[in-house]
Design brief:
Elements: H1 40-72, H2 79-104, H3 121-130, H4 133-161, H5 167-185, H6 191-244, H7 250-277, H8 280-285, H9 287-296, E1 302-307, H10 314-335, E2 340-347, E3 350-357, H11 371-379, E4 384-388, E5 395-402
Parallel strand pairs: 1-2
Antiparallel strand pairs: 2-3, 3-5, 4-5
Helix pairs in contact: 1-2, 1-4, 1-5, 2-3, 2-4, 4-5, 6-7, 6-11, 9-10, 10-11
């Protein structure tokens, strides 16, 4: 279809792998099976277990100090701020512990999202810190680690001196308990926490995309319609001077004819630019008419089938329109197809788009012609983008967007 279409599946996420045990995969933090031989994994686990006691002592002292002072001073004005500061400091300890577990135990745990820093003033930030589940679970982790640190230190040291032949198995069992604690108490709080991190990333993507669109519009206006209007003004000015001098000859007529042509070209460029921002037919008549208009400009015969009983929200409708428009442009330029089809329908709370062509295939996301940005734009609104494009074709692109109800403004009298 086009160089810029993605590969047959969405881009691999960090953490996907080719198989079990591969770094970053589902089992990427699982060491090889324990055995009698001492390898680097075993020595890392032994080092982690021996370090548990001093680390647990520091953590326990911190937890007791924070809780005792914070709770004990709640009757004063400094109690709550002190407790909030302690919870923020607990986040730092949790980050250090995740780093230690990652380095010595191979446990990969996502970092929790940051606390919101804007809005609410001092008391809003104070309340946000006091109800932070990440900080409270880190304090719980530091509290329960002291007895566990004593046990692991004593058992590991004794096994290293007396039971060294079976120490790898003992270390592996104790290390698995440590891994469970890290995953259970130091991971992001829940799915909502992960979702917040995703939305923060998507928000940055949307801002960057909007800025790029504004730069494109400014460039198109400066290099296209504005330049033609400048030429038009100059031509009309010269023609006006000649008319004032009484020179109504063929040269003046040619200058007026040229200016007329410039006006028509400028108007066409402005129409194209307006269509690129948001076409009037989409606003007035919806996706069916707008996509049919786009398909009529494609160099390949396109069948359009829009099965919608109602219109989605304008933002979703606009993204769907520009997705299909970009795909049809790629079909015209790169696919070598003889026919294509566009289908749009609704399933539950999702808007589905499928664009098919019988071209030579081989489409991929890293082709460098803009489809990576299109996939990112869909992802920023909880959409999906999947391409099935084997070499030799055909190519099928499926896009999925969340359905949001349309709320038209009330008509003004």
């Amino acid at each position: 279809m086009t160089e810029s279409l993605s590969s047959t599946m969405p881009a691999a996420r960090p953490g996907d792998s080719a198989g079990p045990g591969a770094p970053g995969g589902p089992d990427g933090d699982r060491p090889p099976p324990a055995r009698l031989a001492y390898d680097r994994h075993t020595w890392k686990e032994i080092a982690h277990l021996l370090a548990n006691l001093p680390v647990a002592l520091v953590g326990f002292v911190y937890v007791v100090t924070v809780v005792a002072l914070g709770v004990g001073l709640t009757v004063t004005v400094v109690g709550m701020p002190l407790l909030a500061a302690g919870l923020l400091g607990a986040r730092v300890l949790g980050r250090l512990e995740r780093g230690r577990a990652r380095a010595l135990l191979g446990v990969r745990v996502d970092e929790p999202s940051r606390l919101p820093r804007r809005g609410g003033g001092f008391f809003g930030r104070l309340w946000s810190a006091l109800k932070d589940p990440v900080g409270w679970r880190t304090l719980l982790y530091g509290f329960v680690r002291l007895p566990w640190g004593v046990v692991t230190f004593a058992v590991t040291l004794a096994s290293l001196l007396v039971l060294w032949p079976v120490l790898p198995f003992i270390a592996r069992g104790l290390a698995h308990a440590d891994r469970a604690m890290v995953r259970g108490l130091l991971c992001p709080s829940d799915e909502l926490e992960r979702r917040i991190a995703e939305l923060e990333s998507d928000r940055g993507l949307v801002v960057d995309t909007a800025a790029a669109d504004l730069r494109r519009i400014e460039r198109d206006l400066h290099d296209g319609a504005q330049a033609r209007l400048v030429n038009l003004a100059m031509g009309l000015g010269l023609a006006k001077e000649k008319l004032l001098e009484g020179q109504a000859d063929d040269q003046v007529a040619a200058m007026v004819e040229e200016a007329h042509g410039e006006v028509k070209l400028a108007l066409q460029e402005l129409r194209d630019l307006a269509r690129g921002i948001h076409p009037a037919v989409l606003t007035d008549r919806g996706l069916d008419a707008a996509l049919s208009s786009v398909a009529s400009r494609c160099t390949v015969p396109v069948r359009v089938d829009v099965d919608l009983t109602e219109r989605p929200a304008p933002a979703i409708e606009g993204i769907a329109y520009f997705t299909v428009s970009e795909l049809l442009q790629n079909i015209s330029k790169h696919s070598g197809a003889r026919s294509a089809a566009v289908e749009v329908w609704r399933t539950d709370e999702r808007l589905l788009i499928q664009v098919w062509d019988d071209g030579h295939g081989g489409a991929r996301l890293d082709g460098g012609t803009g489809m990576k940005g299109l996939a990112d734009r869909l992802g920023a609104v909880d959409g999906l983008f999947v391409v099935d494009s084997p070499e030799g074709g055909p190519t099928t692109v499926t896009a999925e967007l969340p359905w949001r109800e349309r709320t038209d403004p009330p008509a003004t009298p």
